[in-house]
């Protein structure tokens, strides 16, 4: 074997080693880029999910009997938060709200809006002097003297009037619109109860 053949063989081996090293480096860089892209995608997805939950919608668990027969304990409702950016809560809306005396959230129905006069006498609810049995037709055990709903406030009650802590009580009263967190649109759990409100 001639010396120049040996040098040529060594050059081929060196070239193969360099190509293999380059391929390995490219693979390693590609894997690192893929991992980085996955992490970025995950962070973006989590951020979007968090922003949607904070500003657009939320799933709320119902606790207690105050909204029966409309809603029962351990049901989950879909609450959207966008409607009340542009509009005020309206009579009949099922809302998720906070009370002045509590940090918890509550599911209630809007029964009166600003300017309405509500009264409970002889077991019956009156709104602006007219009997209202739309969401509860039974006998209401508590009384309520004529109460005017202030500006930028709503008066809320549970559909199960005799087992509901709501605006009829001094510790709650009419609540400010900004304490209404969103509108409950439909039941999402359990599956057999899925439907609009």
Highlighted features:
197 residues, alpha+beta, Umud Fragment, subunit A, eight-stranded antiparallel beta sheet, four-stranded antiparallel beta sheet, 2 helices, 12 strands, 29% helix, 30% strand, elongated
Can you walk through the features of this model?
The chain has 197 residues and is of the alpha+beta class. It folds into two domains: 1-55; 57-196, Ribbon (Umud Fragment, subunit A). It contains two helices and twelve strands, in the order αββαββββββββββ. It has helices at 3-55, 83-86; strands at residues 57-61, 76-80, 94-98, 105-113, 117-121, 124-127, 130-132, 144-148, 153-157, 175-176, 180-189, 195-196. Strands 1, 2, 3, 4, 9, 10, 11 and 12 form an eight-stranded antiparallel β-sheet that branches. A hairpin with a 5-residue loop joins strand 11 (180-189) and strand 12. The chain is elongated, with a radius of gyration of 32 Å. The model is unreliable at 1-7 (pLDDT under 50).
Layout of secondary structure:
Elements: H1 3-55, E1 57-61, E2 76-80, H2 83-86, E3 94-98, E4 105-113, E5 117-121, E6 124-127, E7 130-132, E8 144-148, E9 153-157, E10 175-176, E11 180-189, E12 195-196
Antiparallel strand pairs: 1-2, 2-11, 3-4, 3-11, 4-9, 5-6, 5-8, 6-7, 9-10, 11-12
TL;DR of this structure?
This protein is α+β, with helices and mostly antiparallel strands and 197 residues long. Helices cover 29% and strands 30% of the residues.
